[in-house]
Amino acid sequence: MYKISYTGDSAVSEFAFNFPFFQPADVHVAINSEVMDGASYNLSANEDLTGGTITFATPPAIGAAIDIFRKICLERFIDYQPTAKIDPERLNDDFNFLLEAFRDLDAVNIDLAAWQNIHDNVLNLVRYTKDMIEDKLGGGAALGLYNNLLAVLSDALPALINDYGSIADPVPDGNKDDYGEM
Asked: What is the pLDDT of residue 160?
């Protein structure tokens, strides 16, 4: 997950961040671990959505922990039509979106039922997209890539939780980076 942290000093009200996002709703702000409502601050995004500035009407208090982070909402933006050509740029955008969404998953603090729903939804999206490509191309290299991605998702993602162990297990010293901040 992309995140940048600051400490408030009751004077500065603008805070820059430089991580990529897909839409303004992907950028969230928390003060002292409490996620703020979007009306509490103003987001000025860079034109290419690779960062921007968060501005508060009232500067955060001295010592306040300010976190600006990205959390991508998993939803479809591109709808492939059965009779239309598949644009390679849009297909790449779909892959990039999925990869970034996977990067944002927090495997340690995730509710297992919610994780299963996310996994199933992503897997269904990939299967649907594969079916669309198969319908349009009747096979070939693009379908092979999608079949490989589908195989990786169906085999690797369920095992991801097992790689981290139970949430109740103590964190081994060598794996603290895997678990995030404790």
From this structure: 57
Residue 62 CA neighbour count, 13 Å, CB half = 0
Q: What is the pLDDT at residue 182?
A: 44
Q: Which helix (H) or strand (E) holds 100?
A: helix 88-104
Task: Give me the phi and psi of 30, to 5 degrees please.
Answer: -130, 140
Measured N-to-C along each axis, helices 141-164 and 112-137 cross at an angle, to the nearest 10 degrees, of 170
Q: Is 45 within 8 Å of 77 (Cβ atoms)? A: no
Strands 27-31 vs 34-35: parallel, antiparallel or unpaired: antiparallel
Give me the residues of the chain with pLDDT under 50, please. 107-108, 179-182
pLDDT, residue 111, reads 58
Instruction: Enumerate the β-bridge partners of residue 5.
Output: 67
CA dist 126 and 155 (Å) reads: 14
Q: What are the CA-CA distances from residue 43 to residues 17, 23, 50, 148 (Å)?
A: 10, 11, 13, 38
Rounded distance between C-alpha atoms, residue 150 and residue 153, angstroms: 5
Q: How many CB atoms lie within 10 A of CB 23?
A: 12
